[in-house]
Amino acid sequence: MSMLTSSIKNLFSRPFTTRYPKVPADLPPGNRGRVLYDMSRCIFCRKCERSCPTVAIITDRDAKTQTVIRHRCIGCNTCVEVCPTETITMVQEYSRPDTAPTVNVFSLDLPRHEYRIEHLPRHDGRKKD
Amino acid sequence: MNEAGPKIERNACLEVRKRTKEMVEAGARMIAIVALEREDGSIELIYSFDRQPGIVDFRFQILPEWEVDSVADIFTGALTLEREVVDLFGLKYKGIPPGLFLEAGKSPVAPLRRRPAPAKGGDEDG
Amino acid sequence: MGRATTIPFGPQHAAFLEPLNVTLTLEEEKVVGAVLNQGYNHRGMEHALSLDYRKSQYISERVCGICSFHHSTAYCQGLESIYGIDVPERGRLIRTIMMECQRLTSHLLALGHIAESVGYENLFMQCFRERELVMTLVNRISGNRVHYSMNVAGGVKRDISPEGLKDIQATMSRLRPRLRELHRVFSRDRTLSKRTKGIGVLSNQAAREWGNVGPVSRASGIPRDIRQDGFAAYSMVKFSPIVREEGDCYARMMVRMDECLQSMDIIEQCLPLIKDGPVAIQMKGHPKGEAYSRVEAPRGELVYFIRANGKTALERIKLRTPALMNVASLLAMLPGCQLADVPTITVSVDPCICCTDR
User: Fold this and answer.
1) What integer is the mean pLDDT of A28-36?
2) Does B32 sit within 8 Å of C320, measured CB to CB?
3) Domains and CATH numbers, chain A
4) B23, B24, B50: which to substitute to probe chain C, counting the most C Cβ within 10 Å?
5) In terms of residue numbers, what domain contains C242?
């Protein structure tokens, strides 16, 4: 019975939740969504690769690419902090869902913050059984 | 703390009940039983208690084949802690069944013990 | 009496958020025996944490989702005491604020869960709505709703801006009347008190024997709160542990509700104490030595034991999570109760199976 006042109030107030896929989620400015590379600045020092706690970054010095294995990235911001040239930025939007594990390949021939999406086999990181 | 660790002694293994009783009667609460494998393959057991204002513990070293006395009848909560050690280190406690976390026959045996030498090749998978 | 019946309760059950199995022995509707089966969620965290001490703070956050900051604080505190350094005051205050924010979210989740287990869907939704205020607040401050990734050994790596501090103050002022309202409902509601008062009593003696920690032990009259030891910045704020004597589900629920209000008090006490300064200090070399580290997680005392031997891999890291002790004490609460009360009792100890099984 003690809930009656709040229940009546709730009946006449707007829903608290948002209709997420239709309207964008309200992410605050500092939200750690995903990392993007600005390859024109990258000096391939491998600091991000070594500091990544989940081994989500692969640096290829010969091909001049940085590869982020998206489903491994936990958005901990470590690579952004260790980068000496501010190549890496954290943006607030999350990566899009996909039907298979993806990797994002950043390379020099692509414009800033653009990447090529490559799909991994479905069982990547798991035993095949 | 003493770096060398306690000596391997059969008696220490039997004294655990006496010392736990002393602690519990002094109003201490058992926090944890830490087991760890030393370089020489013996197991060090650390019984730690919350006795205000800090943590006090007693530690002893045993061989993995020895059976340790259970203290679950002195401090009931120790039962879970002991079963955890039994599962993860494959020690034997008197009257304590295995199988808190791991299922017999399906799970790896004593997963927190160091693997014997050949395992260096790289069968350690996650 | 009738024949004894055995029924499995869980591992998949509407009352549990996570897999736990209680095998109940019943005589008609009365529970006469219970056996706990756990380990459905065992992930070998202790091994994973010991692989590389520099990266382990991120794994330690992921031991459990609802006390992640407490886990990483305990881990970082352990490393700091091995190094023998003191975290700067600003870093300690930020840790305290974040820990109390997480306690708010965790307790509101537990309260909503209790309300749901007695069939009070409306109140459950209400709890989660107020919880969302804190969740969005920590999202604005730390950049994530659950895993803050703010702790590093030596302090915190993300500072709170002056606007952030104002934001915390404003959110607390918004939250306070709402939690007061929730407090009124939880303490006065007839339906709730009929389902929780006198149910699942854990006597003071039993709580001592089972080594219970946290709100469960405080509801049974043990005035022990690890925050009184003054880790992080708790020595700089005034509070006293909330203790109740009854030891039933109602007491456990109300201890959590009162602690929510207390958490807000602690956060508001911390805010004016924050002064400019560094938030973290660097540490050099690999750790060598051993340390205990304790924090008061929402469910109670969380203990980390770390032994390092000067390599990147730790020799041993041991976690004693609060839920491990509290879940085990269900065996003392369940016998004698009615079958219909089993969900309420199990939920009232706030069983976090992620923590229990690790």
Assistant:
1) 85
2) yes
3) 30-119 (3.30.70.3270)
4) B50
5) 4-357
Confidence class for position A15, pLDDT limits 50, 70, 90:
confident
Domains observed in chain B: 10-102 (3.30.460.80)
For residues C303 and B54, give the distance between their C-alpha atoms in angstroms, rounded to a whole number: 13
- Using 50 as the pLDDT threshold, list the residues of chain C that sit under it: none
Other Cβ atoms within 10 Å of C310 Cβ, number? 10
- Whole-model pTM? 0.86
ipTM passes above 0.85? no
pLDDT by residue (tens digit) across C200-248?
888 888 888 888 888 988 988 888 888 888 788 888 888 888 888 888 8
Tens-binned pLDDT, residue by residue, of chain B (126 aa): 444 555 676 666 667 788 888 888 888 888 888 888 887 878 888 888 888 778 888 888 888 777 888 888 888 888 888 888 888 887 878 877 777 777 777 777 777 777 665 444 444 443
| C262, C242 Cβ separation under 8 angstroms | yes
Which are the contacts of C34, defined by CB distance < 8 A and separation ≥ 6?
Answer: C22, C23, C24, C25, C330, C331, C334, C335
Rounded CA-CA distance C91/C154 in Å is 9
Q: Looking at chain A, which residue has its C-alpha nearest residue C164?
A: A30
DSSP β-bridge partners for residue A59 = A66
Q: Is the pLDDT of residue A98 over 80?
A: no
Q: Give me C268's structure tokens.
A: 């508001």
**Residue C218 sits in a domain of what CATH number?**
1.10.645.10
Q: Which two tokens stand for residue C336?
A: 């004698």
Which of C 178-237 lie inside 8 A of B, CB atoms?
A: 208-212, 224, 229
Between chains, do B31 and C210 touch, taking CB under 8 Å as contact? Answer: no
C190 reaches A (C-beta below 8 A): yes
d(CA C355, CA C71): 10
Q: Using the structure block, give the residue that is written with the tokens 């039933």.
A: C248
Q: From edge to edge, which strands make up the β-sheet containing B29-37?
A: B29-37, B43-51, B54-62
- C92, amino acid identity: R
Number of domains in chain C: 1
DSSP secondary-structure letter at C343? H
Nearest to C331 by CA among C216, C205, C200: C200
Percent of chain A with pLDDT over 70: 92
Which residue of C lies nearest to A51 if distances are taken between CA atoms?
C55
Q: Which positions in chain B touch C357 (Cβ < 8 Å)?
A: 101
